[in-house]
Specification:
alpha/beta, Arc Repressor Mutant, subunit A, 2 domains, 7 helices, 5 strands
Amino acid sequence: MTKIGYTRVSSTDQNPDRQDLGNISRLFEDAASGAKADRPALQDMLAFIREGDEVVVFSIDRLARNLRDLEDIIRDVNRVGASVTFLTERLTFSGSDDAMSTLMLQMMGSFAQFERTMIRKRQAEGIALAKVKGVYQGRKPSIDRAAVTNMLNEGSSVTSVAKALGIARQSVYRIKGEVGV
């Protein structure tokens, strides 16, 4: 039996060190929102596990932020004959779980989903209040629109502008349409 760890933080500037998984053989780490199903390390971990392995996760909300994804991930792990252990909640799911384990999983998953919903609601309320006060500035632009416009005006192709600036072609097309270049 191989112990495989999975950790997740919501952004690259956060530190996963508080998610102590103990003695594990292999660690998969993601820096992405738990609300996103497309997490590279999670997909790699699911492809790596084998029958008899144990996936160790610090807490349920580190694996998924909604009940459907949580159940799907656990089902995927169990399907290959591996188990999932959540250290904080002291729960293990092996695929042959009883009704009480299933109930606990669904309750804990629902709490994680509820928490995510409340966070988003508070965030939206805070942004709305900041906009009313005139202090909300939003995210800083990540694309130099002037550079895109200048390169397009100089005759550069959309693809060459995208490559030169390290941005998606769709972004160049959007700016091109907005400024009428």
